[in-house]
Design a protein that fits this description.
This protein has 257 residues and is α+β, with helices and mostly antiparallel strands. Helix content is 44%, strand content 17%. It contains 8 helices and 8 strands; from the N terminus they run E-E-E-E-H-E-E-E-H-E-H-H-H-H-H-H. The strands form 2 sheets. Strands 7-2-3-4-5-8 form a 6-stranded mixed sheet. It has a two-stranded antiparallel sheet with strand order 1-6. A hairpin with a 5-residue loop joins strand 2 and strand 3. Helix 3 crosses helix 4 and helix 6 runs antiparallel to helix 7. The longest helix has 24 residues. It starts with a strand and ends in a 16-residue tail after the last helix.
């Protein structure tokens, strides 16, 4: 179940460990049956659902990683979707002019995929403050597991295997964009396979550069830093398998993203 939350509401969010975090809603814009929410995270965690008096004077949480020059280091964030029923409105607070201005400025805003992603992020923040050793051990184990998986993939990598990979499965793009990106890489990989027996370096280079050309045409703003790094890395992998290199972006230098 879900419900709507208005601007200026103080919202208590239960965490998986039984604690509660509180966000201060700055903007709640309806989008059909969903909404776009911009808010500040308040400093502190509570054992029970707090009352309005408990959080009335709570300060906005400061980002532990700080902020970029010219940005506010208060923890401002955004998510879109539905607010779960257990996101409880416990009071209201009217923002001052400086807080309204900070909320209207997109810079420094942390983006959450949805309400559950926000809940997970707040729980992780509690663990960083109160259960850091165990949390860092979990991160280390997960990092080691990913490294082993990447190594196993690299050791057995072939063009044939790359053509069958379900790429970008976790991407948050529209279905059309996902289909087109997969098609671009799949078509290029199959074209390289067709050239394995007798193709020239120039022909292979043309195919790899065509990936960049097609991504340039497809990009409508969805290619940001994570996507750029993933695309360049995959092109470099394809190049290595056919005896080419993307050193100094020889193959990807014409990208617009």
């Amino acid at each position: 179940m879900a419900h709507s939350i208005d601007a200026h509401a103080l919202v208590a969010i239960p965490l998986p460990n039984g604690k509660h975090a509180v966000i201060w809603m700055m903007d709640a814009t309806p989008i059909g049956t969903r909404a776009s929410y911009t808010f500040f995270v308040l400093d502190g965690f509570w054992d029970d659902v707090p009352r309005e008096a408990d959080v009335a004077r709570a300060r906005v949480y400061r980002k532990r990683e700080g902020a970029l020059p010219g940005e506010d280091d208060r923890w401002k964030a955004w998510f879109q979707g539905r607010a779960p029923r257990d996101f409880a409105v416990v009071g209201r607070r009217k923002p001052r002019a400086a807080e309204r201005a900070a909320a209207a400025d997109d810079s420094g805003t942390m983006i959450f995929q949805d309400a559950e992603h926000l809940r997970s992020g707040l729980h992780r923040e509690w663990r960083w403050l109160h259960d850091r050793e165990a949390l860092e051990a979990e991160w280390a184990r997960a990092s080691d597991a990913r490294a082993r998986k990447r190594k196993a993939r690299r050791d057995g990598l072939t063009l044939g295997k790359m053509s069958r990979e379900k790429t970008f499965a976790e991407a948050r793009w529209s279905p059309r964009i996902v289909r087109e990106v997969r098609r671009i890489f799949r078509d290029a990989t199959r074209a390289l396979i067709d050239l394995e027996a007798a193709g020239t370096a120039r022909q292979r280079t043309t195919i790899l550069k065509r990936i960049v050309t097609e991504l340039n045409a497809l990009d409508d703003g969805f290619i940001e830093t994570p996507e750029r790094e993933a695309f360049v890395a995959r092109i470099a992998e394809l190049a290595a398998l056919v005896g080419l290199s993307n050193e100094d972006e020889k193959l990807t230098g014409d990208r617009d993203w």
